[in-house]
């Protein structure tokens, strides 16, 4: 099993989720985050005063799935999220040693079968 963390633009989230569902990836976590990379600072105005925006709003997707689903999932995330501009985001892959189902207390060997479960 692997965990994919993808940091993407918030406006690309809906399109990315649609793509993931199309390949059968239905289990994931979404978090609103802010961060800093190569993307340039921007200017904002609040109550008539200018300020620099140095941390940019992003969305983090966390997906745990079987090894065979990693490549198609990465392709979908890139195809759905890419604009070609700085600030499109990053994808990180981590190994998962074990997963447990909290309800049953058992090891979760069938992480990709989430769509077929009543759990």
Describe this structure in words.
With 119 residues, the chain is α+β, with helices and mostly antiparallel strands. The protein is built from 2 helices and 6 strands. The strands form 2 sheets. The chain has a 4-stranded antiparallel beta sheet, with helices on one face. A two-stranded antiparallel sheet has the order 3-4. The relative contact order is 0.30.
The rounded Rg comes to 17 Å
First-last Cα distance: 20 Å
Shape: elongated
Number of DSSP strands? 6
Largest sheet: 4 strands, antiparallel
Instruction: Return residue spans where pLDDT drops below 50 for at least 5 consecutive residues.
Output: 114-119
Seen as an oligomer or otherwise, the chain set is single chain
Query: What order do the strands of the largest sheet run in, or round the barrel if closed?
Result: 2-5-1-6
Mean pLDDT, all residues: 87
Helix content: 10-25%
Q: Secondary-structure element order, as H and E?
A: EHEEEEHE
Task: Tell me what portion of residues adopts beta-strand conformation.
Answer: 25-35%
The helix/strand class is alpha+beta
Q: Count of helical segments?
A: 2
Structure in a nutshell:
18% of the residues lie in helices and 34% in strands. The chain has 119 residues and is an alpha+beta fold.
Tell me the layout of helices and strands.
Elements: E1 2-8, H1 13-22, E2 29-35, E3 42-46, E4 49-53, E5 56-65, H2 70-81, E6 89-95
Describe the structure using short key phrases.
two-stranded antiparallel ribbon, alpha+beta, four-stranded antiparallel beta sheet, disordered C terminus, 119 residues
